[in-house]
Amino acid sequence: MSPPTKCDNPMCSCDPCTCEHCMCGAARLGELERRVMDILWKEPDRELTGRDVADVLPESAYTTVATVLDRLVRKGLVRRRMDRGSIQFAAIGTQGAYIAVLMHEALCAGDEPESALVRFAESLSPGQAAILRRSLESFDGERDEASR
């Protein structure tokens, strides 16, 4: 057995991950949490203060935004760092990775994951289907390389 490593599931809470198939779940987001995450995901290479985030959400009080940011830190979606007396926040992982975990959870939730996957594929636009096809072909090529 190979040594355990951190898996590529951005929601994995194991360190190192020892799951045969990582099933660590994605934290569910309320509407304001999602809006805060959208702000953080929009600028993935930039840390923002609570005030920066609150300024984008003028309908929400600063204290409410600060509470939401704290909750997102506890959910493992946001990291917090002190910098010269101010607290900086940044998203952990990308929006795409988060959505992929949600999609995987939804796919595995029912008794017929194959049927759900087929229905999902049928619902894709031609452009989305082409992206998925290229990704699967690339993944198969990487798997072939690894087995050699």
Quick recap of the structure?
With 148 residues, the protein is mainly α. The chain has helices spanning 31-42, 50-56, 62-74, 95-109, 113-123, 126-147, and strands at residues 48-49, 78-83, 86-91. The mean pLDDT is 85.
Helix content bin: 40-55%
Helix count, DSSP H or I runs of 4 or more residues: 6
Biggest beta sheet summary: 3 strands, antiparallel
List how many beta strands DSSP finds: 3
Query: Which whole number gives the mean pLDDT?
Result: 85
Order of helices and strands: HEHHEEHHH
Choose one word for the global shape. Answer: elongated
Proportion of residues in extended strands: 5-15%
> What is the radius of gyration computed over CA atoms, rounded to a whole number of angstroms?
19 Å
Low-pLDDT windows of residues: none
End-to-end Cα distance: 18 Å
Class from secondary-structure proportions: mainly alpha
Strands of the widest sheet, in order across it, are 1-3-2
Search tags:
148 residues; mainly alpha; 3-stranded antiparallel sheet; elongated
How does this structure look, described?
By secondary structure, this protein is mainly α. It is built from six helices and three strands. Strands 1-3-2 form a three-stranded antiparallel β-sheet. Strand 2 and strand 3 (86-91) form a beta hairpin. Helix 1 (31-42) packs across helix 3 (62-74) and helix 2 (50-56) crosses helix 3. The radius of gyration is 19 Å and the shape is elongated. The model has no long low-confidence stretch (mean pLDDT 85).
